[in-house]
Amino acid sequence: MKTPLPLSSRRRTSPAFTLIELLTVIAVIGILAAILIPVVGGARRSAMAAKSRYEFTQLANACQSFKADYGWWPMEGSTNPVSTEDSNIIAILSGNQSDYQGARKLNRRMVGYYSPGNTVEYNNKDYTIDGFGNSDINILFDTSGDKVPKISASRVNGTSLKTGNPKDNPSGRETMNPGLPSGDDIRASVVVFSAGDGTKAVGTWVE
Question: Is the model's pTM score more than 0.90?
Answer without folding.
Answer: no
